[in-house]
Structures are given as C-alpha cells and as structure tokens.
Design a protein that fits this description.
2 domains, 8 helices, Beta-Lactamase, single chain, 3-stranded antiparallel β-sheet, 6-stranded antiparallel β-sheet
Length: about 220
C-alpha cells in the first residue's frame, strides 16, 4: 500500500461505499461479503463510524449511513452552484424534454453528478445523485474536458460547436446531450445535460433538446 494512505481509513471508506441507493440498510454479514473484510474488523470500524455520526444502527440490527455524511455533503455542494438555483432549471429541462436532466462538475479525472431530476417516463435513464463517472466517456464528461483547463486536442470539436452528443458511448442504450455552464468571466461552472434512451434521440429531438439546454445554461448565469 502507498505510504501516503492509511489502511484503516481505506477500510472504513470501503464500508461506507458498500451502501447504495437500492441498499440503504445492510447487515453485518452483508457488509462483510461486500467489502471482503472479517466481521470482527468491520465491527471495530463501525464502532468508530457510529461514534462520528457516519453510520447508525437500527433496532432491526441493520446498519445505515448516518446524518453527518449529509452535513459533509452539503459543504461539498457549497463550492458550486447552489441547489436552489440549479434544481428549478433541471425540473424545467425534465418537463420540456421528458428526459432525465442533470448537472455535473469535474473532480480530478472524474465527473460528479451534483444534481439530477430523473425522467418520469417508465423507460428512462435513472441517474444517482453523487454518482462518480469517467470524464472521457459521455457527453457531460467531454464538455467538462473541453472547457476545463488544458483541454486535449480531441476536444477541439466540442469547443467549436459548444456542446457534446453521446449516442451509446458509455452505455449502449443511453444517449445524452450536454452544454457547458460558464460565468461572465468564462469560468467553467459545470455541465448541463439531458439523457435518455438512445432510440428517442433522433436528429430532430437532439436539436430541440440542445436549444433548451443552451437557454437554461444561460439562465444559470444570467
């Protein structure tokens, strides 16, 4: 293990990462299975995480993520456009396009879905808020690369046209369109996107979605 990492901390993070949107509460046995750690090790880690407010233990014996993670997450979001500004825009985009609308920010070599409003259609692209995805694949990732610091040569087309379209690029059945959100000084604030089933993203639909995206991107900084 690299010298700049602490094994116990890495193990604690692996316990927290075992939870997801579909599994909000987990047993000790399931945590052990997902992390590959011994139950005795997990119990010690859970004791520290519980004391810090990062994990709670229910009366049913199941563990859940604790309230202090929400507090820390709110501090992270304050670095970017606030939810009261972005969420109404995403709701309008969802209503206009009938597709999932999202706002991404760059985090190193990844992108984070900071906010999202999922489509109300039964067949949709279901995004998880807080999801970490690669930069090099997907419309929003390519926009963040193209309009961020030191854009690669491969991003010239995205910069020229001012948007990116992904048709089955990251997931074969999913399409997405994204535009940058920049302030008056040209500083990149994030990427606004709509996504859905690739079969619904015809050339005409893409053009309509793109117009809505550009208008709403301007409203975020207007």
């Amino acid at each position: 293990m690299p010298q700049d990492r602490v094994e116990a901390v890495d193990r604690a993070f692996s316990v927290l990462s075992a939870f997801n949107e579909d599994d909000l509460s987990l047993s000790l046995a399931e945590l052990s299975r997902r992390t590959g750690l011994y139950k005795s090790t997990i119990l010690r880690l859970l004791g520290s995480l519980k004391a810090a407010g990062f994990v709670t233990l229910g009366s049913d014996g199941l563990y859940s993520l604790g309230p202090d993670l929400w507090r820390l997450g709110s501090y992270y979001r304050r670095r970017y456009l606030p939810s009261e500004v972005v969420m109404p825009v995403l709701e309008r985009l969802r209503n206009l396009t009938k597709e999932t609308a999202s706002f991404y920010v760059r985090d190193g070599e990844n992108r984070i879905c900071l906010y999202r409003v999922n489509s109300e259609r039964p067949m949709r692209h279901h995004l998880v808020q807080g999801a970490r995805l690669p930069l090099e694949k997907g419309a929003a990732g390519r926009v963040l690369l193209a309009f961020g610091p030191e854009p690669p040569i491969s991003s010239q087309e995205v910069r020229y046209f001012g948007h990116a379209i992904s048709l089955g690029e990251r997931e074969s059945e999913i399409a997405a369109i994204s535009v940058p959100v920049v302030d008056d000084d040209g500083q990149l604030l994030g990427a606004l996107a709509v996504s859905g089933l690739v079969t619904r993203f015809s050339e005409a639909a893409c053009e309509t979605h793109l117009n809505h995206l550009r208008q709403e991107a301007r409203s975020l900084t207007g």
